[in-house]
Amino acid sequence: MDDELSLDDPLRSLVQSLHQDVAVRAGLPQRVVRRERRQRRVRLAGSVLVMAVAVLALEPRLDGKQSVTFALQRPSSHHVALVGDFTDWRTDKLALTPTRNGVWEVTLRLRPGRYRFAYVADDGEWVPDASAAPVVDDFGRPTSVLTVVKQ
Amino acid sequence: MRAPLLLLCLLPAALAAQDPRLSARFSREAALRITAVIDSAAAEGLPAEPLVLRALEGSIKGASPDRILLVLGRLRTSLHSARATLGPDVEAADLTVAAAALQAGVPESRVAELQRWRNGKPLTAPLGAYLDLVARGVSGEQAWTQISGLAQRRAADREYIGLVTAPRRPEDD
Q1: pTM across the whole model
Q2: Do B97 and A114 make contact, defined as CB atoms within 8 angstroms?
């Protein structure tokens, strides 16, 4: 039937152009599919990112560590450091923060285990933790010991 | 003549294997002597970390290298005994607390008995609680009675810690 149509016929040209438009429109779903796929990839990447952040947020709970607060009543001190197995026995690693009524505090997350520690106040005074058990010290300084268990 | 030459040849290797925490704290000679003790312990399959930490503790407390070496020697012996008592597959944390218990006078047979009762669970909580009770003035026998009682009924770790940190009753005040 189309064979009967002349290309010079304006009506037929219009019909052809309309057909071409339809043909172009036929490609639309593919573009839509491609766009949809792109959007899904973006959404997937976003959800992976969210999952990664969630895992990072959960990680401290999954690593078996427990929160432990060390506190020392020491109103007269200007500086208190916590030293022990968890600081490689360095006095410059963990400073306690003054909170209220002369109480100095720091909270750590520690794996289950047994830790030797002490406080070093101001210019080198070694102070044991009154609430922790004392330990026999081989080096002549007061030392405490703490057992952390899995809750 | 050969010995100093050999030492000169081995020195770089020893320094390379040295824990950087030790070389940062001790003189070159002291760090080498301490590393030698730790290396020989490691060659016996003992964990290095408790020995390194005790050396660092001695350093910050101003102990002499000779004193630190003496303490490390004792700790190594206790770790060795603990290993012989508990077997080769025990965790370093358990080995360390068992070594402390043996040093405190707990017989090896009791540590082995506790390991059987715990049936693969860590020993840190029961032995730590035992040591804490004794450090606070409870007799060894009394402390062991409490610990072994909990162990035989498969108590949770927090129950051992509860023995040491039992809340004070109002009438105690």
Answers
A1: 0.74
A2: yes
